[in-house]
Design a protein that fits this description.
This protein is α+β, with helices and mostly antiparallel strands. The protein has 13 helices and 21 strands. The two termini are 24 Å apart.
Length: 409
């Protein structure tokens, strides 16, 4: 079963929601966060990325950053203002980006179910990033980052959505990037209906937010003595929004490499052709099973689908991103670990393939690779066998906004 629980959300009043709402803390560099928050004292980036209000030389993991984050949250609660819901509630959160629309159930999900594998993962986490968000949660006494979950669609949940959409929204705003964010608070009857519907869902899947949920688990452990190991304590739950798989949108997570590991362009191209059919192409967006490669101002189509050596049937080995790593990045470009190799550059699909061309044409990269997006079915299949995708395989778009719902622990 999948457990979802209403909670007493800390949220801005509707009039200030647009000013408070901020993109997730981990999709921005420090300088980008500074620019986005400039001139807006209500931006939640002052809480999620509190180092932007300190000396630029400050270590982002310095204790002063977490103290400042806690101070900024208290300031924001008074200035926005932000209020705590009188009754525990669940919410539907709809994202509309052009013609694309997805609606998820916002509430508190069980850390214990994460521990037991009812909530499945597909990525490894880094201890330093876990440390950061655990310290942030403990300093604030709150979870401010939302875990993006997905599940196999359930008709009973969609029926409740349809009713909810007829009611007045709590928040309805369009962000600077053009994405419209709308939230509805569920009635008591509809809360009971979706809780019952979710109880029939065998598994939830982490789409985006592996570090947030891992940090919530660590924060729960650290707070356990204070809660007397009470399984109903707020710290035993994490803030999430669960979207049906039929609506979840994944974009490619493309790659570029700063150099050719000592090879000339001709030698590198020859090495790739020894492994796969390669043809010059005008297309920068490949179909599944193929990769678009940009080298010396020319796009090439690399057909990985024809190699019988790769037809293992393994859920991970069959991913285009895994084949790129195993057959080109590793053996040809000597990239042993994309997480730690400083030559690797990652480009979220939302930036388009033009960003890849710019990297190569400017000399910031020697070669770039455009991938077809991982599908939601592929993500679920990998998670179902408890396997791990290569790092930075998926880019979820549109993004949820921080600051609209905060879970106090």
């Amino acid at each position: 079963m999948a457990l979802v629980r209403p909670f007493h959300a800390l949220r801005p009043v509707p009039e200030s929601a647009a000013a408070v709402a901020a993109v997730p803390y981990d999709v921005l560099s420090r300088s980008e966060a500074v620019d986005l928050a400039a001139g807006n004292p209500l931006s939640f980036l002052h809480v999620s990325r509190a180092e932007i209000d300190l000396d630029p030389a400050t270590d982002p993991y310095d204790e002063a950053v977490y103290r400042t984050a806690a101070d900024r949250l208290e300031t924001l609660r008074a200035a926005a203002p932000m209020v705590v819901e009188e009754t525990a509630s669940l919410y539907f959160y709809r994202l509309r980006d052009g013609s694309h629309e997805q609606t998820g159930l916002a509430g508190c999900y069980s850390v214990d179910e994460y521990d037991r594998g009812v909530i499945k993962r597909h990525e490894r986490t880094r201890p330093d990033k876990e440390d950061d968000r655990t310290r942030h949660m403990l300093a604030l006494g709150a979870q401010t980052g939302i875990v993006f979950l997905t599940y196999r669609m359930v008709a009973d949940v969609d029926a409740v959505k349809a009713r909810t959409f007829q009611r007045e929204a709590l928040f309805d705003m369009t962000a600077p990037d053009g994405v419209r964010h709308t939230l509805w608070r569920l009635t008591d009857d509809d809360q009971r209906a979706v809780i019952e519907a979710f109880s029939e869902i065998p598994w939830l899947y982490i789409a985006d937010g592996h570090h947030r949920i891992a940090s919530a688990a660590r924060a729960r452990t650290e707070l356990a003595p204070a809660n007397h190991h009470n399984p109903s304590a707020e710290a035993c739950y994490f803030l999430g929004v669960a979207f049906p798989d039929s609506e979840t949108r994944i974009l490619p997570y493309n790659r570029a490499v700063a150099d050719l590991a000592g090879l000339t362009s001709e030698d590198f191209l020859r090495a790739v052709k020894a492994r796969f059919p390669v043809l010059a192409s005008d297309e920068s967006t490949p179909p599944k099973g193929q990769i678009a490669m940009y080298l010396d101002r020319q796009w090439y189509r690399v057909d990985q689908s024809v190699s019988p050596a790769l037809a293992t049937g393994d859920a991970v080995d069959g991913l285009d991103v895994a084949r790129l790593q195993d057959q080109i990045l590793g053996p040809v470009l000597q990239v042993a670990d994309v997480r730690t190799d400083p030559r690797m550059i990652f480009v979220g699909g939302v930036r388009g393939t033009g960003a890849l061309e710019q990297l190569v044409d400017s000399g910031a990269a020697a070669v770039a690779f455009s991938l077809a997006a991982v599908t939601t079915d592929e993500l679920l299949s990998v998670s179902d066998v408890d396997a791990i995708m290569p790092p930075k395989s998926t880019w979820f778009e549109p993004k949820l906004r921080d600051g609209l719902l905060v879970h106090l622990i």
